[in-house]
Each structure stands twice: as structure tokens, then as C-alpha cells.
Amino acid sequence: MVLPACAQEGPPPLPPVPEEAMAAVAVEPGVPREPLARAIDTLFTADGIGETRALVLMHRGEIVAERYAEDYGPDIRFTGWSMSKTVTAVLLGMMVADGRLRLDDPAPVKSWQRAGDPRSAITLRHLIQMRSGLRHEEASDPAYLSDEVRMLFLDGRDDMAGWAEAQPLSAAPGTTFAYSSATSVILSDIATETIAPGESAERRMETMADYLDARLAVPLGMTSLVGEYDADGTLIGGSHIWATARDWAKFGEFLRNGGSVAGAQIVPRGWIDFMRTPSPASPDYGGQLWLNRDSETGRDTLFAEQGPDTAFAAVGHLGQYIIVSPEQGLTLARLGKTDGEERAALVDALADIVALYPER
């Protein structure tokens, strides 16, 4: 007797999408709903990808997916870590637009302007594009010797900008890319001195908090946006700005729309274009933003081989992401905790979500 073949042709069918995953996705998300729900579910359930605590996906200005891990929700603020750098860059753009600062003038740091100090050649453009030449060593080993750790938690913690600004040059200004949280704190100090020159620590903090609220949080509807400050009253603009997942997504939409909200231009479109323009020292970095382009160094912060080169992202420690793809009308905010060895798998999963949407 010959038994009929029981082998199945092709791969086995995928298991049903969990009800919770489907419920997190809008009925009409702009692409087939089930594959999108499945891709988002991977972020929350897959092994080796870290812990996703919140995700908000927007398509053409509408939230099409929103999901939270247990114990998290829409009212929880998340620290942006280095996504904060992008907020700081927008604040600088407002001051440049107001005529208070100039991109290619020497950066207004008093301690650099003494006769013979080579740091006087550092411009605001150099700082924003992470090519100041200052000796800032991010994520070095051991961690307690890393400059961002020393600045935030050890010998620099009371006057972070003073500590960052005191470092010598290790390269000629403008020539070398070196990613640095200390650089972004210098930018925060420049911004604060611009609007509150020579003021007390308390007054510096109050003035910057009011500026952040009036010029950014209120126009964007980011009611949860708040910053932390050091003992000298400087906004910790490289790492310590907080907002809910929805508000981080609103910030991404603001960038996607070239600095405008509901037709109101909050920061000049040309400034956002500058932030999205590759640094002369690093093709995958712009102005406090990562770009979806080949780094030419083997560094893979985003997914240049898979997505459009017009996509960009604010990226923070432990896997905080705001990914923006104007060509696809997309903004994706992911908050959570993913350690370094799992980061590549996380980026792959985020890329799979983005890839579901066609380019225009």
C-alpha cells in the first residue's frame, strides 16, 4: 500500500497574529494591516531584541499604530537620551533664524577666545556637525573613563559645559568626525548664554525652560516635553530631555514637515535641510541627526541598504529611535531598552516596519 505524501509544499503558514497586536494597529494603516501588526509584535515579543516599551507609528500625519509594554502607557515620559541632541539643534536653529547666532562665526565660548587659543577656530557649524576637533571620547572602555560618563556623573557633573569646553583639541577644527554628548552640552550652553547672558544658575534654567516651552513645546503640542539641568543651570541637551512617546512622534512629524506644524513655520525649512545634509566629515551624520546613508566606515546606525537615503533619525542610548522617512510619509518613535549586542537585531526589526510602506 502506498501512503499519500504528507509533505507540505513551501514554508508552513504563519501563526495567527495575536489579538493584542492587531488591536494596536488602525483599521486602515496605509498598508495591509496584518503584516504591519506582525512586524510591530516582533518588536515587543522577539528574543534578542531588547525591551520595547512604547511604539508610535505615524503615516501622513495620522497615528496608525500605537502600543505599550506592560506598566507603560501614553502618559509616561521617556528620556530621549541622545535624541535630545536633535531638540537642541532645533533650538539653535531658532536662534540663528532670529539673528542671535551665526553658523560660521567662531562659537561664542569665552574661554576659547583668548589670544593664541586654537579652539577659537571652532564654529557653530563644526559643533553641530560633530567635527569640532575637541578631545571628546564617547563610549570608551572602561566606561568610567568615557567622557560622557565623566561629564554627566563624575568630575564634570556640576558644570557640564565648563568641563566639556575645557577639553583641548585632538584634531584641527572641521576635519574629523567625533560623536560626542559633550559637544551637545556645549551647544546647550551657547543657547542658554544667548538668551540669558551672565545670569545666575537659577535664572539660566528658568529662561531656557521658558524658551523650550514657548518656542517648541507649545507650538508643537508637546505638552510633556521637559529638560533636565545641571547645577550651573545648563540644559543637559545631549541626553536628558523627556517626553511621552506620542510627543516624541510629534517631534519627528515636525522634522518630516520641514520645521512646520499645521502650516506654521516654527523653524526655517532651510535649517531642517541643513540638519539633514551630510557632514563633510561623515556621510551618515548631519546636524545632530543620523542619516540613512553608508558611513563608509562600517558603522551601521540605520539601514542604508534597505531604505531610502532621504530617511533620517534621532537615535538615543539603549535603542531610542525617531525614524523619519519623508519619501514614505512615515514617522516611527520607539522607546525602550536594548543593549549594544542586540542593537543590530532591533534595527533590522525597525527596518522591516519601514519597508512595508512604499516610497512615493
TrEMBL record:
UniProt-listed InterPro entries: Beta-lactam-related, Beta-lactam/transpept-like, Diverse_Enzym_Activities
Domain Beta-lactamase-related: 54-351
One Pfam family this sequence matches: Beta-lactamase
Name recorded for this polypeptide: Beta-lactamase
Originating species: Aurantiacibacter gangjinensis
Organism placement in taxonomy: Bacteria, Pseudomonadati, Pseudomonadota, Alphaproteobacteria, Sphingomonadales
